[in-house]
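Handout, section 3.2

Students often ask what a structure token actually looks like in practice. Rather than define it abstractly, here is a full record for Long-chain-fatty-acid--CoA ligase. The first block is the sequence as you would receive it.
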Amino acid sequence: MYKAKKGEEVVLGLLPFFHVYGMTTVLILSVMQGFKMILIPRFDGGSLLKTIEKQRPTMFPGAPTIYIGLLNHPKIGRYDLSSIEACISGSAPLPVEVQQKFEEVTGGKLVEGYGLSESSPVTHANFVWGKRVKGSVGVPWPDTDCRILSLKDEKPLPPGEVGELAVKGPQVMKGYWNRPEETAEVLKDGWLLTGDLAYMNEEGFFYIVDRKKDIIIAGGYNIYPREVEEVLYEHPAVQEAVVAGVPHPYRGETVKAYIVLKENMTVTEKELDRFARKYLAAYKVPRIYEFRDELPKTAVGKILRRSLVAVEKEKVENGDEKIS
């Protein structure tokens, strides 16, 4: 069983400190507990592997794209990564496939957490030791209350039902600076409406389904991008995948997948289509695939789905995009 030891841990500081995630999980935590920090200015797979082998970090907070990039480096097998004991992934959904592979390579634990800037930032996390549930963001942190609210009337829902996640606790913001209207929309009686769709199981573990704003409505069906992405990540040729709803003249929206392939790997649209149909209902299967060398990301590695959607809408408005 792993438990952080005050004054003895070595934290890999790849997350930027100007973002609340890096500031709290690397900088503030290390200062409070007397941990050594290894500061990395930017992600470079080869350099990072060398640093891990030489500096022997024990804790590695990151984002899914960071772990994905490391796992797909062609020389990863040449380096000793066994010093890594605990990793907390945040900022974006962690594919189960990535979690399993990273734990196999390092021998450490990689768990998913959840939060947002408005909650300073963490509200949920899985246990590094003890019970954890794959695909779940874990349980609420101490002194944090959570509810799943109906999208119709904002009343609390029972376990197993999907609604909007609301959180309440000492880490929740007082409001947006000089933005009272926006504050009133998300803060109600001390509860922060996160904008994320989620559900809780009978044991109290929470699952994030997707952002409310990211739901794809195609031909009257609701499609959650995360579910489709999880399937695409299972394909052996796929390194990164993001799914979005793009305008369609008949269905309203249609499912489009943006794919980054692993180095020296190839796959066709037809092959991906056949693969997806094995695991997804027909209406959830992507109708369009776009292969890219890279995907747009934030400073902490979160894929910018909305920027991809904005480009698609602009194409349609300009008559540049033909959608079947």
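Discussion prompt for tutorial groups: The chain is about 25% helix and 25% strand. How would you have guessed this from the sequence alone?
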